[in-house]
């Protein structure tokens, strides 16, 4: 624990434009399966809640409606 720690501050980041575009395209393509997986998980959770409450989920929502 006698090591000296140094703080590093990044002040500039040089990324070529087309490499950044390629990265952002890959990022957007990776978001599609992630959204599908999250939608499937949400569907399963909603199905479990509907099964637990007898399919009457509107009982929970009546309190929040105006």
Structure description:
The protein is an all-alpha fold. The protein is built from 2 helices and no strands. It is elongated and about 60 Å long. It starts with 16 loop residues before the first helix and ends with a helix.
Secondary-structure topology with pairs:
Layout: H1 17-52, H2 58-62
N-to-C order of helices and strands: HH
- Helical/strand content category: mainly alpha
SS element count, helices: 2
Helical content class: 55-70%
Distance between the termini: 60 Å
Binned strand content: under 5%
On the 0 to 100 scale, the average pLDDT is 84
Radius of gyration: 24 Å
Q: Which spans have pLDDT < 50 for at least 5 consecutive residues?
A: none
Q: How can the largest sheet be summarized?
A: none
Q: Which of globular, elongated, flat, extended, rod-shaped describes the shape?
A: elongated
Task: For the structure shown, list the relevant keywords.
mainly alpha
Please provide a brief summary of the model.
The chain is mostly helical.
